[in-house]
Amino acid sequence: PEHSPGFKKPPALLRLKRKRPGRRSDPAAAVGAAAAPAPRGPSAAARRRNPFSSLDNTTQRAAAAPQPPAATPAGGDPSAAPFWQFLEPACEEKPSGRAEPAESSDILALSKDLHSPLAVPKAPSLPRQEFPADWSIKTRVLFLSSQPFTWAEHLKAQEEAQGFAQHCRATETTLPQSVQEPRLCTELRCAFQQSLVYWLHPSLPWLPLFPRLGADRRMAGKACPWAQDEALQQVLMSDWSVSFTSLYNLLRARLCPYFYVCSAQFSVLFRAAGLAGSAVPTAAIAPTTRGLRQAMRSEGIEFSLPLLEESTTRKKKNSEESLETESAEGLGGDGSVEDVGEPAPSDDDDDDGSFSWLEEMGVQDKVKKPDTISIQLRKEKHEVQVDHRPESLVLVRGSHTFTLLNFLISCRSLVAVAGPQAGLPPTLLSPVAFRGGTMHTLKARTVSGRTRVQGGFEDVFSLEVLGPVLPHALHALTLVLGPAQRGSFRALLSPHEPSAAFNTGPAPPQEDVHQDLPACGLHPKTLEQLSQCPTLGKSCIRLLEMKDYSYTWKA
C-alpha cells in the first residue's frame, strides 16, 4: 500500500513543525524582524531549549557561548520572556537581562525542588529536646547521616532473641548519650531490634494488610479462598471479634496504650486514658461519610467533628469581625444603623419543608416537589461536603467507645462485600501483644553512597525502615539513633495520608489529666511524649532532623 510522502521524509516534517510557532507571532514583531538583520548567535529569549538535551549539557553550552542580555520586548508580549520569570513573585523588580548560565542554574534548582521526595514548608521549628507526638502511621522512614549504620546490620541470633525478650517483658533500655563503637555495643543492637516489633491481626503472609484504604490494586490477583465461602468468612470475623475485644479490654485496663483498626473504608484509633491529653479513653475515626455518622447516631453514640467545628467557629468569628467593620463604616457614612444591622437573606430560610406558597399561587399540582431526602441533604450540605476528607474526623470519648466497639463488630460496612478485599476482616495494629495477635517486625536495610557537594563528594549513609511504623516505634528509633549517630541524623517520613487527621487534639484544653500508664509496655520517654496533647492538627511530620541532640521538624 502507498503511504503519504511525509512518512518517507521525517526531517522535512520536523522542520515544518519547527517553523509553525513562528506563524502565530505578532505581525508587528514580524515586520520588525524582517527589517532588522537576524542575529546569528542563539538568543535566550527567542530560541527554545532542546527538550531532548540534558540540563548539564545546556549549562555547559550556555557557559561556552557569549549571550546578549534577554529583555522583554517593548510591545509587551510576555511570550518572549523566559518562562521561569513568571514563577517568581510579581512584586519583585526583575532585572532587564540575565546571562543564560544563571537562568540554567535556576532551571536546575527548580527541577530539584519539583522532584524532591517531600514537599515541606521552608520554615522549620525551633530546636527542642523533644519533637511532638505524631499519631499518623508511617509507611516508610528514611534516616540519613554522615555516620555509618553498619551497627544495624546482621544482628546475631542472641541479639535478635534478646531484643524480642526485651519487647515481650517491656524491659527499659538505658543507653549513654554517645556510643563510641556502635558495632560492638550489644545493648544498642538489642534495643534496635526491640524498637522494630509490632503486633498484627489477621496474619496472612501473602497479602499486604496495611494500608487497607486504596489497596485493591495491590491485592488484585492474590489468593482469597474466603471470597466465595461464607462459612469461612464467619470464622474469620468471629476470630477477629475476639482479638478486637481483647485489645479493647487491655486498653481499658491501661495495659495497652493504643491500637488501630484499619478497614477498606476508614481507620479507627483507640487511645487509652492519659494519652493525647485526655483523661478518658478516646476513639478517632477518619475518613467518615454521612451514612456512617447517621448510623452511629442511630446507635446512640455521641461524637463530635472537631475539625469541622473548628472551621465553622473560625468562619463565624471572621464574619462577625467583618460585620463589625461594616457597622463601623456604616455609622461613619450616610447609611443608618437599621440598614447595617439587617441580616442578609439566607438560602436555608425556605428549607423547612413547607410549600404553602405553591398553594397560594395555585400551582401546587404542576410543580414537582423535592422529596424529604433532598431537603435533608440540602440542610446538611456543609456536613456532606466533608465526606472522605480529613475534616470528616469523628471523635468519640469516654464510655461511648464501648458502644462504638459493639457497633463496629456488627457494622456491615466494616468488611468489603466485593473486590479483592471482600470478606477480609480489618487489620488490627498494636504495640503490645493481644489475643490472636502475631508478632511482626519492620523491615530495615542500610545503604551507603556518595553525594556531590561543593569541592567534591561526601559519604552519605542511610537506614530505610519499611512497614507500618507506629507512633511509639518512631520515637523508639530516635532514642536508639541519637547515641549511635552521635546526635546528628535526618529522617524523611512518608505518612499514610488518611491517618494524618489523628493528630487532632481529642480533649478540651481545660481538661486535667492524671492517669498513669506504667505497665503499658512503652519506654517512659515515649510514654511521656504520647501523653502530650497533639499540636499538629490535621498535618503530620514529614521531615525530622536531630543536630547536637536537639530536634527540628517540618510538617
Automatic annotation (TrEMBL):
Signal peptide: none annotated. This is DONS protein. Residues 27-45, 72-82 have a biased composition (Low complexity). Belongs to the DONSON family. It comes from Pycnonotus jocosus. It comes from the Eukaryota. The lineage of its organism: Eukaryota, Metazoa, Chordata, Craniata, Vertebrata. GO terms for cellular component: nucleus. Residues 336-353 have a biased composition (Acidic residues). GO terms for biological process: nuclear DNA replication. Residues 51-61 have a biased composition (Polar residues). Residues 1-82, 312-356 are annotated as: Disordered. InterPro entries: Donson (IPR024861). Keywords: Developmental protein, Nucleus. It is found in: Nucleus.
